[in-house]
Design brief:
globular; 9-stranded mixed sheet; Rossmann fold; 9 strands; 306 residues; alpha/beta; 9 helices
Length: 306
């Protein structure tokens, strides 16, 4: 039997209360970091680090947000990889979209890792060898993070998600690398790129849609259903998009296609547009979804007591 959730109105469960942290209402467009919020700086347990990408022959910057318990314990932690949108960078999530990301890390005892994805759409570009961010995130970065931090180095203890371009990346990488990520998600993701052939530098990565339709067809999330086992076995998927978002229709189409292929997933739609305020709220729910699965799948020993 197909199992899915399509939420029209949110019922705020008591179990989520710890995740409903203060909102900082950032209404900027999908763009890069606005800089450090000085009022929160002293409360952050962040580490900026570079990983040299052998596939791209260049260093890539990343930001890790560690739970406050990290320094005082020897335990290992699950990791949620957060991908930024087009025009953003590795600091966008923690310093613009979710300035209180530290509190979310503390609430659930998880590590957030935010890589710089440039304007890549998180593919390995067939046209530009300097854009191999699928290999970078799914292999080079994950290996570096597991070596550098006290992670739980198992697919059951990893999740990947993001907003806009990063929402595409969360599902693209999650669907294509189920051996690395058992959990994946998207917030306002560009989950079908083909209706937008002139936007967001995609031609640089894929060539023009008119001249390379087969490449575009093979590099869009909605055409990756063949990679997913039926009934959702082996992968946990969460998708979230606002009614007023310009990506709403392609998210609806993806939801319907997942249902048609009998692929279990959680799908949420609610009032909202393509804004940081929307994603600031979305990450609370997606984090709870991922953490629930970390414990259900045996990646963590017990639910943290707060």
């Amino acid at each position: 039997m197909k199992k899915y959730f399509k939420v029209k109105l949110f019922a705020f469960a008591a179990a989520l209360a710890v995740a409903l942290l203060p909102s900082y209402g950032l209404l900027a467009a999908d763009q890069g970091s606005a800089g450090l919020n000085s009022a929160l700086a002293s409360d952050r347990n962040e580490e900026e680090f570079e990983v040299y990408s052998q596939s791209m022959k260049k260093p890539v910057k990343n930001l890790a947000v560690l739970p406050s318990s990290y320094k005082s314990s020897q335990k290992r932690y699950p990791v949620i990889y957060l991908l930024h949108g087009f025009g953003g960078n590795y600091s966008t999530w923690a310093h613009q979209t979710k300035p209180n990301l530290q509190q979310l890390a503390d609430a659930y005892d998880v590590i957030f890792v935010c890589p710089d994805g440039a304007r890549s759409w998180y593919w390995d570009s067939p046209k530009d060898p300097s854009l191999r961010y699928e290999t970078y995130v799914s292999k080079e970065l994950v290996e570096a993070v597991d070596a550098k931090f006290r992670t739980i180095p198992r697919r059951e203890a990893r999740a990947i998600t993001g907003f806009s371009m990063g929402g595409h990346g969360g599902l693209w990488l999650g669907f294509r690398h189920q051996d690395i990520f058992k959990n994946c998600g998207s917030m306002s993701g560009g989950v079908d790129i083909r209706p937008f052939p002139k936007n967001w530098d995609m031609e640089r990565s894929l060539g023009s849609y008119a001249e390379n339709p087969e490449i575009w067809d093979s590099h869009t999330v909605i055409n990756q259903m063949h990679l997913l086992p039926q009934n959702g076995a082996g992968i946990n998927i969460i998708i979230d998009c606002g009614y007023q978002d310009f990506f709403y229709k392609v998210n609806e189409a993806l939801h319907e296609k997942l249902l048609k292929h009998n692929i279990q997933h959680e799908y949420t739609v609610r009032a909202g547009a393509h804004t940081h305020q929307y994603w600031n709220n979305s990450i609370d729910y997606q984090t709870m979804f991922f953490v629930k699965n970390f414990y259900r799948d045996g990646a963590c020993a017990q639910i943290p007591q707060k």
